[in-house]
Amino acid sequence: MQKSSFLKSSCFLFALFISGAYSQIKVVDITHYLFPEFTKGVILMKSKIKHETMLNYNLLTEEMIFEINGTKLALGNPDQIDTIYIKGRKFFLLNNKFVELIYHSKFDLYAEYRCTFKDPGKQVAYGGTSQTSSSSSFSTYTSGGRTINLKLPEKIEPIPYIDYWIKKDGELNKFTNIRQLAKLFNDNQRVYKEYLKKHEVNYDIQTTIIELLRYLAQN
Hints:
Blueprint: H1 2-19, E1 39-45, E2 50-58, E3 63-68, E4 71-74, E5 81-86, E6 89-94, E7 97-104, E8 108-118, E9 122-123, E10 129-130, E11 135-136, E12 142-143, E13 146-147, E14 157-168, E15 171-175, H2 178-183, H3 189-198, H4 206-218
Antiparallel strand pairs: 1-2, 1-5, 2-3, 3-4, 5-6, 6-7, 7-8, 8-11, 8-14, 9-10, 12-13, 14-15
């Protein structure tokens, strides 16, 4: 029964992959993922049907990837998906990208995981190197909607980063630093500044942002 169930789920995932417009289909061969390895996760469809498969999120292509028999494929038709669960974490579709729900209360906080790369230093006079304007986003090479064995140069340094989205008063707003977050709470500046006098909020430390939002929700 378990084997039969697995086969049905596998067939469904391939169908989901193929049923979208072919220009949106990609076979990925890139190692820049959110999790260190593919992990069994659950895909909850809007139809309430659940499918288990090995999942990971590709920071470079910004796609949710599933793996079957060693083949890695991007999920097609993500608009049919309600929630994806990986290691107890929840991912939802936002602006055609999967984001993680980090905090849920009076305010909802979402993390959009992305990646850039630092190019190898360019040769300059006297054998030195220059990395001016060396950080850039890499685009995948595709042919007929299929990624062609994209391999990155050995010296390329991946630089993962996070863009945050907050849902406040029914509106979604993006912030990429603490100053931008502060502007979203102009209506509650007294409480906001009161908290900052006693606590440090670091954009790169997710827990500090969550604690700030928890305090604002309670005050």
